[in-house]
Amino acid sequence: GAVVSQHPSRVICKSGTSVKIECRSLDFQATTMFWYRQFPKQSLMLMATSNEGSKATYEQGVEKDKFLINHASLTLSTLTVTSAHPEDSSFYICSARDPGANVLTFGAGSRLTVL
Amino acid sequence: GENVEQHPSTLSVQEGDSAVIKCTYSDSASNYFPWYKQELGKRPQLIIDIRSNVGEKKDQRIAVTLNKTAKHFSLHITETQPEDSAVYFCAASIMDSSYKLIFGSGTRLLVRP
Q: Are B50 and B33 in contact (CB under 8 A)?
């Protein structure tokens, strides 16, 4: 089945630094990928829709200058958390649609801890 | 935009009993309703989904029902087992080219041995 790889799985950084998270579709091309954020014991909140070759579409309340999304190829989307602060600590999960299977597949997630 | 509500937030059942989780959605244009199971620290795993052209779908011990008129759908797990213990999320989407999913708040299911 479709596989979505997400890297890194865990990252710890200092406050004020930037962190990049990668999301790759391994065996299919994804023109659209989604980035979610999940705080402990809470639901998955959609942050943005990543569109290959064009700007990402951000959900209401998500700062586009803080969460930079780049979808430069059909198999890779990146999320950069800029000037990270402790309140950005969360579980970030990407997903992509495999057109062949017509279902969404999730990456394994990246747990970000900002000290 | 779409809003999905999910109940209950926690559910504790005895092994072998049934568990039912209910969700409502707000956007009548939504036509795809998946259910995900998430274990602690892991990615959500699709367990069953239903599209709006059917009212019920079953896969072994898991079934989902959909009432388009009332805009609600439910997950039914029969003969529960301890390994069913996890957090379950419902979601709703318009099944166009994007597949943008909006999730419910989640139900923590505990199956007592």
A: yes
Say whether pLDDT at A58 is over 80.
yes
Q: What are phi and psi of B82, to 5 degrees?
A: -55, -35
Size of interface A-B (CB pairs under 8 A): 49
Taking an 8 Å cut-off on Cβ atoms, the answer to whether A42 and B105 are in contact is yes
B20-52 per-position pLDDT tens digit: 999 999 999 999 999 999 998 899 999 999 998
Q: How far is B56 from chain A (nearest CA, A)?
A: 18
Q: What sign has the CA pseudo-torsion B79, B45, A8, A62?
A: negative
Exposed, middle or buried: residue A85 (CB in 10 Å: 0-12, 13-18, 19+)? Answer: exposed
